[in-house]
Design brief:
The structure is a homodimer. Chain A is of the alpha+beta class. Chain A has 2 domains: 147 residues, Nucleoside Triphosphate Pyrophosphohydrolase, CATH 3.90.79; 71 residues, Arc Repressor Mutant, subunit A, CATH 1.10.10. The first copy, chain A, contains 7 helices and 9 strands. In chain A, a hairpin with a 2-residue loop joins strand 1 and strand 2. At the A-B interface, strand 5 of A face helix 1, strand 1, strand 5 and strand 6 of B. Chain A binds a DNA duplex through helix 6.
DNA sequence: CAGACTTTGCGTGTTTTTTACAAGAAGTCC
DNA sequence: GGACTTCTTGTAAAAAACACGCAAAGTCTG
């Protein structure tokens, strides 16, 4: 039984890659570690999973403590379980990513205490633990998801312009998209509601505002429907090393 | 068992969905549980992760103990961590699937002891724990992978006919494929080597044998290349409930 | 060994999707 | 009112996907 007991000296945690979109740039919310190991380095927000807490719930809790937000898009990506990934013991972590509207984010006590800060994906440097690997895996998953499901809207305010939407896709996919073709394709899916409103306070012709047609989408999904986008041929340099 | 419960805090395990292909049918290797909980029910092969063992290594070990095979295609899919998924305590499991050539499989002591048996995916019934859910997640992942990467070959013998290959795709994708279009598409990818050999022992015109061009594929991937297949419009009933 | 049987192997025309590409319209600012 | 910026829109060409049927190769059997 003592031998058996060895199996239970390990712990599990969740780590959450929280994506936001701002200024045409894909961002991720990182915390600054206040204690060893990796004191002073940036890291993904995460926590040990409580004994009576579902995995998904733990990821949601980490997110909510840091951002005050709940009911946002949250998806499990992978477990990371290399023996030495945590210097203090055996900790297997399950990685999640979430998509939030950055404008809804407010600084919570937890995020203040942990010095949470948004980082452009392109400027993320060496993170604590194996968090670069985790971040990369989550980013790759997002990149793939965004082609096959309309999750991008989770990152935009409720009302947005087609240009904003295109910039979002370009940022995530790291590609350039043709404006006319993009609009044609998106509009032909019939998932956007034209709000008959326009932008305000811009020093040029204001663009029309649209809204994502959530219910219509859910109906289409139930009827079996596939959302898909392809990239153009121009490929800028990747945001993260492959 | 009460003693067990006292010590029991939390543990990790891996579960492995081992796919094989035979008689035009996608199969999965299940074991028959010899002990409670779920005694007598079919279950996915799995094990607790040793304290000093990487997650991936644990999945590989489970596979090798059962099949004697190593160096096969193995991919992590997801972690399953609902609080009550294991009746005896908190066990988070990480699901993997592997693709093996069923003809290479031999009964090992472990598989004999655990009464391992191949089951057609379409005839899998209620499994122990949350293993139906795990199986389904792995199958969905395979279905998606097979469209974007040439992993199907892992399930076929080294030499195969185009018809066998097509049947494999049809089984995995649960769809019908047009023979001429399928052959055109596959051959146009230039990933098959025509072996200049033909089938033997069949009571009809023997088909040509092909081989997957592993090195050529790896070269193409390095150069940035995308493998893709789409389904036809005819949709047979799904193998597993969605 | 001829005829029946099964499975292989192959080409073309049609439709759909993707791509490339530019100019005028609507607002703001000075 | 003129300069400036961004918004909006269509068409033609190329590529990919799709539907579709028949002759040839080999085995079997009587």
């Amino acid at each position: 039984m003592t031998e058996f007991n060895n199996f239970f000296k390990s712990a599990f945690s969740v780590d959450n890659v929280i994506f936001g979109f701002d200024e045409g740039d894909l961002k991720v919310l990182l915390i600054n570690r206040g204690a060893d190991p990796f004191k002073g380095m940036w890291a993904l927000p995460g926590d040990l999973v409580y004994p009576n807490e579902d995995l998904d719930a733990a990821a949601g809790r980490v997110l909510e403590e840091l951002t005050g937000l709940r009911d946002v898009y949250l998806e499990q990506v992978n477990a990371f379980g290399a023996v030495n990934r945590h210097p203090l013991g055996r900790v297997i972590t399950v990685a999640y990513y979430s998509l939030i509207k950055i404008s809804n984010y407010v600084v919570t006590p937890a995020s203040f205490a942990q010095q949470a800060k948004w980082h452009s994906l392109s400027s993320v440097e060496a993170l604590a633990f194996d968090h670069n690997e985790i971040l990369n895996a989550c980013y790759q998953r997002l990149k793939q998801r965004v082609r096959t499901r309309p999750v991008g809207f989770e990152l935009l305010p409720p009302k947005f312009t087609l240009t904003q939407l295109q910039h979002l896709y370009e940022a995530i996919l790291e590609t350039g998209l043709d404006k006319r073709n993009f609009r044609k394709k998106i509009l032909s899916m019939n998932l956007l509601v034209d709000l008959d409103e326009t932008q305000e306070g811009v020093a040029h012709r204001p663009a029309k505002l649209y809204q994502f047609a959530q219910e219509r989408y859910e109906k289409l999904v139930r009827e079996g429907f596939s959302f898909e986008l392809k990239e153009s041929k121009r490929k800028p340099t990747p945001l993260l090393p492959v």
